[in-house]
Design goal:
Elements: E1 20-23, E2 28-33, E3 36-40, E4 44-47, E5 53-56, H1 62-65, H2 75-78, E6 83-89, E7 93-98, E8 103-107, E9 116-119, E10 123-124
Antiparallel strand pairs: 1-2, 2-3, 3-9, 4-5, 4-8, 6-7, 7-8, 9-10
């Protein structure tokens, strides 16, 4: 909705480890510690070190992703993994790289709805 800012600061995330991933009917929550988190309400992709698609939000919505009764097989790929790098392509997306080489890309793909929030900075995309 607001676009990924070109000066997006993820310095607090670099070197930190993912402690929890929560999946709701409309969101994906990634918690590093209680004050450091990412809430995703838009399209996302998880790619491996070679750029192959591991998983993505189907049809661009978290809600359709949650219709499955199985636990996503990619959860172990990001749980207890450390963020090592950020890449941004403003205003369309940002991508966080894990110590495994896997990358999580989050898109701002709606002109009407917020796509993501990043705490503790209070950044809303």
């Amino acid at each position: 909705m607001y676009g990924v800012p070109k000066d997006l600061d993820f310095s607090a995330f670099i070197g930190e480890t993912v402690l929890q991933v929560a999946i709701g009917p409309h969101d994906l929550q990634i918690t590093i510690h209680p004050d450091l988190h990412i809430s995703i309400w838009s399209r996302w992709e998880l790619r491996d070190i070679d750029g192959n698609m591991v998983d993505q939000s189907p049809d661009g919505s978290i809600a359709s992703f949650c219709t499955s009764v199985t636990i996503p097989t990619w959860l172990p790929r990001i749980l207890n993994r450390t963020f090592i790098r950020l890449e941004i392509s403003p205003p369309e997306w940002f991508e966080l790289e894990f110590d495994t080489g896997d990358r999580l890309r989050v898109y701002d793909d709606s002109p009407y709805y917020e796509s993501c929030s990043i705490g503790p900075a209070g950044v809303i995309i």
